Amino acid sequence: MRPTGRLHLGHLVGALGNWVPLQAQYDCFYFVADWHALTSDFADTSQLTSYAYENVADWIGAGLDPEQSTFFIQSLVPEHAELYLLLSMVIPVPWLERVPTYKEQQETLKDKDLSSIGFLGYPLLQTADVAIYDARFVPVGEDQVAHLELARESVRRFNNFFGAVLVEPQPLLTKFGRLPGLDGDKKMSKSLGNTIHLSDSADEVKKKVMRMYTDPKRVRADVPGTVEGNPVFVYHDAFNPDTAEVEDLKARYRAGKVGDVEVKSKLANALNTHLEPIRERRAAVLANPERLKEIVVDGSRQARVVAQETMARVRDAMKISYR
Ligand code: AMP
User: Fold this and answer.
1) Span 295-308, pLDDT tens digits
2) pTM, to two decimals
3) 200-282: which CATH number, 3.40.50.1820, 3.30.420.300, 3.30.2130.30, 1.10.240.10?
4) What CA–CA distance (Å, rounded) separates 255 from 265?
């Protein structure tokens, strides 16, 4: 995860919620991709390290466990850069230019300078991030499938030249699609300012929910409303465990027999019940910055041992080993 801001409900359903149960099944590595944050935000790095720590606190808040999984910071494992460099000797530039997000993001993020080598190369840096741990699976959403395709092709090309050195990673697709934004946009996203953060107070959550976009045709409570695609109900489905309450609200909404205030108040309550233990855990983690630092430094040291073993193998295979 890139430390470009605080984590929000989209990250919870689209990433963290999926990562937590994987811990019991796999040997998991989770990292703060601080170099990746530079691919689009190199001009202002003032908040990068504080976001990095906050993101790790958010992970622990959401249920990731540094005792069970390896947490690390990308730049504390410089071998990622070495593998990226070696891959860059082998991978043709047009492969990267063809990655769909390359042109898409250059067009949509007009206020950012995305003409750098770093931005073009970031899917290859991701390839190195994954391959350096011999990772067989990467838990991702649909938006990252093309990047993993590039990772597999790059690994195959590399292995064709140097032997079976690197492992081809497969996506472990997240079931949950995209969480819409508070404004009804199809994606909750920091850059759109339509988010509820895991760090928001109960009061902030309530205020944001009360201002949420809902069915614009419903000018009064007695006008029948549309539930499908309505973000208020998408959130109810995602976060309110009381399905009887949700079904009752939907039925009355469709019939024009419930006010927005009731639907939204119940959503705010459900969200706050869901977020309260996360908020408490993240606050406890942030209250002990020395321990938090220790978690990422220790995890990075452990990750580095694995990365160094892979790089020794890679250098041997490429015959640039001077041991
Ligand atoms: P980002 O911070 O936008 O780079 O997102 C990191 C990852 O979090 C994405 O690859 C998605 O898997 C997930 N994610 C972010 N926003 C959402 C959202 N609105 N709905 C679902 N998943 C999301």
Assistant:
1) 999 999 999 999 99
2) 0.94
3) 1.10.240.10
4) 19
